Every structure is written in C-alpha cells, then in structure tokens.
Amino acid sequence: MGSNCFKSFIVAALSLFCVMSAGFLHAQETTAPGTEEHKEVEHAAEGHESDAFDPGAAILHHIADSHEFHFFEYTNSAGEKVPVSLPLPVILYSPQNGFDVFMSSKFEHGHATYNGYKLEHDKIVPVDPNVKVYNFSMTKNVVQMLLAVLVLVWIMTSIAGRYKGGQGVKTAPKGLQNAIEPVITFVRDDIAKPNLGPKYLKYLPYLLTLFFFILINNLFGMLPNAANVSGNIAFTAVLGIIAFFVILFSSNKHYWQHIFWFPGVPLPVKLIMLPVELLGVFTKPFALIVRLFANMTAGHIIVLSFISLIFIFTNMSTAAGIGFAPISVIFSVFIFLIEILVAFIQAYIFTNLTAIFISGAIGDHHFEEGVTTDGHHH
Q1: Which pLDDT band holds residue 190 (cuts at 50, 70, 90)?
Q2: Dihedrals φ, ψ of 351, to 5°?
Q3: Cβ atoms within 10 A of the Cβ of 104, count?
Q4: What is the dihedral of CA 121, 126, 130, 133, to 10 degrees?
Q5: Residues 95, 100, 104, 105: is their CA dihedral positive or negative?
Q6: How far apart are CA 378 and CA 367, in angstroms?
Q7: Which of 42, 76, 336, 353 is least enclosed by beta carbons within 10 angstroms?
Q8: Domain count, the chain
C-alpha cells in the first residue's frame, strides 16, 4: 500500500513536470527571441510579475541550472528588490571575440549586458545573433558536483589513513570511520559479491565510487538553495554512459553470442530475438539514466509544489493562504523525509543495477571455475 502511494506521488510529480515543460517549450517555440511577439510577452510578464505568482516558472527555476547560487531577496529603502546571491565564474569562447572570463555578477541578474553577452533564462547568449559562443562556465551544478568530489575524496582518504594507522584493524573503528564502514561492507556483501561472484574485487572500487558519489550529490541537492545535480539529465547521462562502456569492456564472446545468435532456439525465433537483444544493450544504461533523473527531479517538484500552494492560496485570499500554510508545510516535511530515504535508495538501485548488467556481460560467474558449490566438476 505504501509503495503504491509513493508511486502515485512520483507519477503525479512527473505529470506536473511534463505539463509545465510542455507549456514552457511551447512558449519558446511560438515567441522566438527578438520578435515583436516575444517583446510583447516579456513586457506583459514584467507588468504582471508582482501581481501573480507563477508556480510553474518558480519550480522550473529552482530545479534548473544557474550561473549563481541565489539565497534570498530583500526590499531596500527605495522599494526595490535586491537579490542576495553568490556569483560564479563565467568562461566563454567565441571564434569572433576569443576568450572571456568574468564573474556572473556582471550581468546584474539579467538586467545588464557585458562584453557583448547577456543572460536570458539563466543562459548566456551573445547580443549579436551572428556571434557563436561556447560556454565553459562554472555553473551551480558544476561547482556543487566538484564539491561532492572533494567531500568524497576527503572521506575516503581520511578513512584510509586511519586504517593504515591501525585504527579499525587492531582496534574498533571510531567516528566517521565507524559510520562509513558498514556502508562499504553493505556494497561489498549485498551488491558486488552476489552479482559478480569471484570477480567482485575487480569492480568493487567502481561500485563504491558510484554509490557514494550519487549518494553525496543526492544529499547535497536537499540542502536549501543547493543545486539539484542528480536531477540533471546531463549528470545522469554521463554516469549511464560510463556504465555502458564498463559493461561493454566487461563482455565476452558468450555475451555477444546470446545477443546476435541466441543458442538453443529455432532460426525464426533467433531473427526475432536479434533486434530485441541488440536494443537491450542500449536500453539498460538508458534505464539507469532516466530512473535516477526522474526520481530525484520528482521529489523536488513535489516539495516545491506543496510550498507553491501557500502562495497560490495567498493570491486568492490572505486568510486562505494562512489557513493552508500548516497543511502545506506538514506535507512538504513529510515528502522531504521520504526524499532522504529516496536519496539512499536511488544510489543503491543505480549501483545494484549496474552490477547486475556487468554480471550479465561477464557471464555466469557461478560456473566459470568449472566447479559447482558441492565440489563436483562439470
């Protein structure tokens, strides 16, 4: 029952995300930048910006990448809204203008141009449409991902140093070492060994790195004003592509034989199975990519949707907003707690499925040594 409810939440969130994305893309297609229609839409949006709260735009803005870490806004003595944010380095290359390196604060949150570039919908575009630009900037997702790498390296090197010093070997592990060791043991005994058998040590460093890297990014994404790195399709795509190549390089002739010419079945069935099995080579990493992206994005959308309901009801009536606020906060906290659990579950699922796919590529490891569990030779 609980599983069905959770799936319903995910489906609802993804449906909301698709509807908002479809509307956003439709607006982009029908109002191209630079056209009179686009200017009219922008003018109308500026005129009504303070009149109504747009939950779709707010949610998409919070889960999207950006060139700054936005914290909050305050109103100064002149009645103007002043955003408080941490600007990030902008690194651009244009064949016409060469390299440009500056801070994103030069754009003044999208209200100014700098060196022939401007900020539109958190994307840097040239003022001159004939200029081509390549963006190598340190965006919010990139910076947070690098921080996750540093945290991962720090945790593992500090724990390794303690083991070298004898702590955890001659004495009981303490502190962070005591917290991380059961997780490492879990990945080894419940993911690597059952799926990879005698070859588990070869793939254990990769599986451990994969698990902790995804977990740290999942947890970082739950911090206030943090980037939703795991909910970025580019991030999950890179992890899926790496898993794809690991699976391919782990394969052998028996794996490809079962794909191109399935043994033990009639010829007509082989011809039917060939495209299905060949497609499966690509759908496996694709499933890893979409699963992590969809689940981590869905959780953020649900939490933001509940919070947005407060502002929606407030626009209808101040009393309605105040009355619904406690309900919205309770549901948001509930989903947030579930998201903490999902952060661990998704790291486990991605790592476990990767181990299963690698196991399928290397063949049946239980019989590769030619000896059964009872000691008899085949």
Answers
A1: very high
A2: -70, -40
A3: 25
A4: -100
A5: negative
A6: 8
A7: 76
A8: 3
